[in-house]
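For reproducibility, we list the full input for the magnesium ion complex.
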Amino acid sequence: MLVFKFGGASVQDAEGLRRLLRLVRTYGGDSLWVVVSAMGKTTNLLEQVVQAVRHDRWPEAMELCGQIREAHLERIQPLRLEVDSRATSPDQKNLEQVLDTWMDRLLEELRSLRGSQLSYNCFYDQVVGYGEILSTALVSAYFDQNGWGHRWVDARDVLVTDATWRDARIQWEPTIQRLHEVHQEDYRNQQGVQCVLTQGFIGRDRVSGLNTTLGREGSDFTASVVAHALHARELWVWKDVDGVMDADPRLFPMARLLPSLSYLEAVEMTYYGATVIHPKTIQPLQNKGIPLRVRSFLHPEAPGTLIGGGENEDQRHSCVIVKKNQGLLELVSKDFSFISEEGLSMIYRALYEQGLKANLARHTAVSFSLVVDNDPYKLQPVQEALSPFFEIHLTQGLSLWTLMHQSDKMRRGFLSGKQWLFEQHLNDIYQYVVVE
Ligand code: ADP
Ligand code: ASP
Ligand code: MG
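The corresponding predicted structure, in tokenized form, follows.
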């Protein structure tokens, strides 16, 4: 079987939905799981809804929900009259009705959560996954409208996680079991089912039964979990770029396609911040030897990038990775003492509790510096937790450049005209904290 994953960019408009159906029909084969994330920038809007509700700004929350509905309506309106002659499904539903049903459920959920005692991160997980529910409900209705037999599966019923809100960990044993059960049911018992359609990014906490999310951009990881559990032949992620390139083509228009990568290279690139694939995606595939294809939904006939197709594990491509919007957090012990292991564990715990990662760390005698994503909602609680013990200084407006496997000359070329606060390197991986 195959697993396909379609991200927000691939379903951001009516043409995206038409294309998704075409790609599934053309390339899908007879045993396929399709994982879809939220349409366009819906998750960002839902994050704003969460903020508004938590700060008791109810009218603003309603206004944002109105924007979410409008944006989806715009996407589906051109599709309303496109009923295919093959559409025979008795439960064929009007796309607009489907949208309104799920929007009503979102509003109901928000009303019932308003004033709840849930922690911020737990509350967040109850709300932001609605983007995926909306998008797959609409894709499902569009499939029905076009006679494409499929089964809509609620990912929360199959992806069993722990309760690490906003960064939930997969509970592998029950997840594999649930995925197998659903897979067997589909292809044995249901006539006319051509694929299973489900959401990326969301799961359910095994203990509390509450919704969880796997971390922003986590739908690639969902697809990888499904591929691992069901021993997929391959996982294909459909993107708005030709494949994995030696730099982000949005920042470097001269970036070149990398036709093949080993799992190790892909893991390194995503670890240092190549956002084309979520960093957790590679491991479950590597463990089962399942190849990952990164393909362009705009040029589906092009081969894209093949990861883990048996390349030489020692091969290294040179590439550039830029993480924008970084902050440098400098911590100095208040009494001029060394920052001991105890101090370090306190610092890392504060980061962990906010779901922040140290993208780079540097230790000196009495200070410790960390480069982190500059997210004020997460950094403020970290600063509050650590300020009784350390003098803290935050420098904003930075980016973290990682230059991998480049010659001195190439590095000089990339950095010309740039100013950086400091650099670190290990073998031929060089990192620079650059002033934006
Ligand atoms: P999805 O729609 O699946 O969420 P993303 O938008 O997260 O997809 O990933 C695709 C984007 O990743 C591209 O538009 C591109 O700007 C960015 N990107 C960053 N680094 C790279 C890279 N090395 N190669 C290709 N694309 C990259
Ligand atoms: N919709 C989620 C996000 O925007 C998950 C994903 O797109 O992968 O982060
Ligand atoms: Mg993404």
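Residues 7-8, 37-38, 43, 131, 200-201, 216-219 surround aspartic acid (ligand 2) (CB under 6 Å). The chain has two domains: 2-232, 319-435. Both points were considered when choosing residues for closer inspection.
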